[in-house]
Predict the structure.
Amino acid sequence: MDSPLKTIISLRVRYGETDQMGIVHHVNYLHYFEVARTELLRECGFSYKSIEEKGYLLVVTESQCRYLKPARYDDELRVETWLSLLGNVRIHFQYRILRGEEVLAKGYTKLGCISPERVPTAIPEELREKMKPYVEEPSS
Amino acid sequence: MDSPLKTIISLRVRYGETDQMGIVHHVNYLHYFEVARTELLRECGFSYKSIEEKGYLLVVTESQCRYLKPARYDDELRVETWLSLLGNVRIHFQYRILRGEEVLAKGYTKLGCISPERVPTAIPEELREKMKPYVEEPSS
Amino acid sequence: MDSPLKTIISLRVRYGETDQMGIVHHVNYLHYFEVARTELLRECGFSYKSIEEKGYLLVVTESQCRYLKPARYDDELRVETWLSLLGNVRIHFQYRILRGEEVLAKGYTKLGCISPERVPTAIPEELREKMKPYVEEPSS
Amino acid sequence: MDSPLKTIISLRVRYGETDQMGIVHHVNYLHYFEVARTELLRECGFSYKSIEEKGYLLVVTESQCRYLKPARYDDELRVETWLSLLGNVRIHFQYRILRGEEVLAKGYTKLGCISPERVPTAIPEELREKMKPYVEEPSS
């Protein structure tokens, strides 16, 4: 079974992302996920900006994150993202956040495609095709 | 079976919490959860501030949120929180966010108690006692 | 000379608003200013939400803040706001942030009224009238 | 008169940094300033992280920003920073934010150096030396 394509981005922790525990405040991992998600779409040739300009929205319907080890100010982090489900209307993104070889966090977000009328709608076929290589096959 | 005690707080959505979809950006729900969690501890007579001053930390090890309906700028929201697990070291908080009678989001956070040496440690017994009425009995 | 009316709000510092210095990260004061500004408008009978719904925007064109003493997690803060200028198109809000009698920060924001076409436009007369008592007379 | 050295960074606007006006929420410019400031220090060979590890803090005592044109989601921005004052205890950073050749915002932050005892202290001489080329000469 082939591994899926993954989008990998780097980012550096900003001071304002820390809290008084001296570590990255946990909500910021969801911002990092979002940055990675944007880049996966760009790799597919569909900037999320252009998707919204065409009247579609990808809305987050569920998010989850497990915080394994703390990230700290000025750390260079790597965020990996790929898909675990590419449905007609729904997309599930998976994420891992690493510092070097250490996995700091794992999570997912579930998104739904909605039309300008704010009702669920099919993901444009052209976009779905481009995203297929990023889908992880379920292990059997 | 009795219902657990719940902490209920009100808050008003800030402008800076919206995004260009015209709704509350999804990460902010986790901030709202945190505000509610702080108040549950205060109701137990243990401000989280005083817990940290005694050298304990409650660190978030997992968060999840399901976004059912969007919250908007200036909405008055109600955040309810209670516990689904009160272990030796671990506490699981449950949350619901409502606008009037509409449930907008549901989620949980798992926290672990750690000592000043940054190793897992038992939740102080006095605090555990006060939190017990907030624990939801598993349905049988 | 009479003092202007002031809008006074209370808020409690959220954990996620601190940084690793153990104090409120400085950018959050601007969020507090915004919360206070929203309430001044509400006191005038014009929720900012309704202003946007009528097609007007009040956009921030300049912000300034002087940080005198640090605010900390769980502090109950008081934010005062009033106006130093109420022009045809421009409004200048002044702010003070206090903890008890201690002044922690002072600042201002300058805002401009713009129309749905995104050009500068006069502040609706009805709103201007209501805001006049909040204007601080220049000292002579 | 020579121009000062400037630190120039690039960053891309995150979705969560927008607000319901469809533009970058104004407080985020201060986060961008902070990212640029961190890089200026790194160029001087003193990561801000290492400065804090040695027990010094650089605390923001004043911030100002003028918002000239809106930045939008996914924009690639350039942030320039240099110094307008390098005192014994105080440093004033200047900033410009650009998209291509358009200047979107200008601002400054004033910082003071404080010791682990949280009292004002002289900026370490070695760091001051490295920062001197970044100081803009006052025009005469």
Remarks:
- The interface with chain B takes residues 12, 14-16, 31, 34-35, 38, 47-49, 73-74 of chain C (CB under 8 Å).
